[in-house]
Amino acid sequence: MEPAAKLGFVASAMDHDAAAILDFEALVRIFRPRVFRFALASLRDRDAAESVTQDCFLRAYRYWDRFRGDSSIQTWLMQIAVNLVRDVARNRRLQFWKRAEASGVDAGDASDWIPAAGLSPEALAAARQQVNAIWAVLHTLSERQRTVFLLRFMEDMDPAEIQAATGITRAAVKVHLHRAVHAVRQKLEEGK
Amino acid sequence: MNRHLSSDELTAWLAGGRAPEIEQHLRECPHCAARFDQLSNALSLFRESGRLWSAHHDPGRSLQLRPASARRSIGLVAALAASFCIGLLLLQQPAPRPKARPVEEPFIEIPYVAPLAPYERSTVMRTTLPVSALIAAGFEVRVPDASIAVPADVLVGQDGRVHAIRLVSNSSFDSDRRLNP
Fold it and tell me: What is the distance in angstroms between the Cα of A80 and the nearest Cα belonging to chain B?
């Protein structure tokens, strides 16, 4: 079945996001930022994140007829992205080359992007410190803890969506999230 | 609860474990509420800055964003340059005749999607939507055949979600552009 036709069907059935999309190109335009963001935050490498993003949509296109509508399109795409990120992270060769990778990005730069409107210089400095602390903790988490944390707090996905995207049980999602938040909270409270 | 929340209870609450007694305690205890707000604000800042940071690095985006500090100075220079150019044009040209502008309908927000933040970038995309999907989203669209698709602009936020819809005027159908509350 062609993606466009299937999207129209899904749209009328269940997903308001899908309602806005009638062709695959539009789907890429709408969901690409989210997939890229998750990949970049997980891998901290622009080229690897771009590669994961392209692979994600390539797979989505190839396996479009397997999308049954059990979850939203967004969750389905994130499920593909989570698997691809996991593959990349587990690829030892890439890990080796990653050390010398020129496209690596410093997650500490993210604090430069805090919306500064209405913040005093002191408050902005404190906010930057907090954001840097969270990124520093993310670096120390296990892959699953980091994935669950990013899906929850960067992508605003609820536990059921995280369960669908990661393929781990609801209880495991809860445990990973609890441990990740515990580490972040400890770091933030240490910094006070 | 006659004591402050433990670290574990606070962690559980932040992680989404919604126990009614903790919710009540947070309503009644300013100390614990302040602790929770501080952590919650830090997570919000992490999310907001992370989204802008990612958009900056995304090679698929046509517009390269810049950090807030750089945006301010570039914006000031651009505004000054634009003012200068407009001033020159006004001095050199007679006042233009008013043009007839096409009538555009306002965007209608989708009620169950979080509104765009003031600083959030959005994209308007023209597409065609199935009438059945519009009806499911709360639009009242009167057409003879609900299986057709109609042209519309969709407002897409940085998170990729559709925040609002604007039907494009079309003489072949009659629509009441209204969302049910």
Answer: 17
